[in-house]
Amino acid sequence: MSLTAQLPALQVVVPLLTAPLVVLLRTPGLSWAAATAASLTAFAIAVALAGQVLAGEVIHYEMGGWPAPFGISLNIDALGSLVLLLVTGASTLALVGGRDSLATEIEAGRRHLFYAAWLIVLAGLSGIAVTGDAFNVFVFMEISSLATYVLIAAGPDRRALTATFKYLIMGTIGATFYLIGVGMVYMMTGTLNFADMEVRLAEVTELRPIVVAAGFITVGLALKAAMFPLHVWLPGAYTHAPHMVTAFVAACSTKVAIYVLLRFDFFVFQNNLSQHDLHFASFLLPLALLGILVGSAVAMVESNLKRLLAHSSVAQIGYILLGASLISEAGITAAAAHMFNHALAKGAMFLAVAAFALRLSGVRLNDIAGVGRQMPLTFAALAVAGASLVGIPGTAGFVSKWLLLQAAFAQGTLGLVAVVVVVLSSLAAVVYVWRIIEAAYFCEPSAEVQAAREAPLPILAVLLLAAAANIYFGLVPAFPLSLAEMSATELLGGLQ
Amino acid sequence: MITVVFSVFLLTLLVITALGVVRAQNLFTAVMLTGIFSLLMAANFFVLDAADVALTEAAVGAGISTVLLLGALGLTPREERASGAKRWLALVVTALTTVVLLYATFEQPRLGDPQAPVHQHVAPWYLEKTPELVDIPNVVTAVLGSYRGYDTLGEVIVVLTAGIGVLFLLGLPGAVGDRPRDDIAKGRTYLSHHLVPQVVGRLVIPFILLFALYVQFHGEYGPGGGFQAGAIFAAAMILYALIEGEREALTVISPKLLIWMMAGGALLYGSVGLVTMALGGNFLDYNVLHSNPVAGQQWGIIVIELGVGITVAGVLLAIYHAFAARGH
Q: What are the residue boundaries of the MrpA C-terminal/MbhD domain, all occurrences included (chain B) (predicted)?
């Protein structure tokens, strides 16, 4: 078999098998280099796969050479490929720029274990994005969750442990709900393969176990995706994790759960449960709107920079779910595009936070007062990413928000409510992003801030790259948009 | 009929035990009850003819987990701190979940119904094709090791991640973190004042080790395989540590070797996949390992099971030592 044909497997296998190697490499420098190399390779594979998907190829791979449904098959569709780009891209940027930041937060003697856990998160999230098997999703969800708990628990103070514990309990409940749902579908269909499930469900549709399974799967994944009101684990976990971990995890991990949610609900259930689209929309839409409002409101009054951005993430997850809950071509395109753009904006902002943290003792708004004049490049990148988060024209964030508004307008009265909520929360975003900029640029610097220098080169380079991507994809959005449109067509294809 | 009666009996005991765990204020009691819970669960699995799962549950759930929880208990107070808060919301959510689950049971296939969908689709293919394609009597091993070998690799990584997490947070003297080896018990052991366990323990350890090897290499024919064997092997070594002391146990299998076992088993498993790729097959396609595909399947399964066993034993022992060293 050619190397190209092996790419879907290598996407997961490269980080998965580099992880145990990193456990054995006990020097911090070597383990960082190995992890970064594996992550870069994974990113290159994701780019190659995205190229194949855009060229219209159907990517299918049979693990162990066994055909589905007897073995596990990998299927990479447009949305999966988009998610792969986010996961591997975020990991690579955070690793390349993160060496100094992680060195200050994690002691040398155990840093190799940290990098091993990082690679396992990367492999786990990628594994979910490529697989075509419902139980395989659970296995890789376990892998990525367990390793994420390790990364978050590595946070510098003891509050990281309580935040991790909360996340662990909630995350385990979410995974268990998903497993119960998959178990019930298996009981009624005898298969674990997504495509096969869709076919075989037609015979047992409307039976109670299937209806209940749809509920369990949706709620379990909503927990993992931090959908309001199941988001209570998120602010603590993002705040107390090491800064680079926050940049990595915030950019992609909730989006992977949303990806599975969409895949299950659109591919497997929509055709087989009568009025499932109506139930799905009426469950998701109000919660998405509430999440947008509550997340934005809390972010407006929060004074810890990381916690502020975390609450903003709750609102942004609301945008993505809002787009999906419209169940229209335009809505899903907007949701998929917003996954990509929010990852760019929020990833860049958390990278900027990590850069500040390298020079300052804290990241509360008081701590960063006046830092903009001492670290102008870092500040500029933060401002660009902030503009993208608000949705100012010319940035990536604007593109998907505009699509979302258009999709909502097309829905009539209910859509107007959504439009009002989106506009309100955008105003809120202006407020909270402005609070950061005001603190960082217009406030009087403390003695510590006056002594601060610009962040070290690797993190600065990565940060500027991420900020530039926010502008580039705002001006030339063709690449993410065509993947997003393909995703919408594929997901809605199940509805005809 | 007798199966149903047994199942109802065991499940009733299971519910009572679960309530006992929740209600227990003394953590030692709670840990003991979770051990009983797992043993009952294992019996349940066995009644349902899932011997492989039963063996795993008994070895890992009732055996090793209980020991690890006891190790953790050495670091915490014995009594649960009374919490004044009445958790009504939690109670409501739990009750609702129960009702929904009960609702779902009404239209599920009858227990053991041969017409049930699970017995009509993939399972018959496994039963029919395994003798021809893999040629081992235990179909469960064929499913776990070959048809769904990728999932099993994932599970090995889950176990490895658990080990990485515990070592990252607690450290392992002599391997991870900078604590010196002298930190660990100096001659004192948990069982040093108890003559009977010492004598009996020394007598049975060789047999437990032998049994672990049997379960490891007999998995193709009977219930068993790497997960169970690794757990049983770790159990024997933990018993050794309890009798002879931490230092002795860490001399037999040094912390450095433990780390190599943890990572090495997973690497061994993964490298089988890489070899099959290099030979022109898909990842974990054992057919290409040998000119005769069936022999290739058997070789593949034996090697990956060995990888599973090594990682599981290494991780469980490392976790145990991390807790035990912390307790002194």
A: 13-78
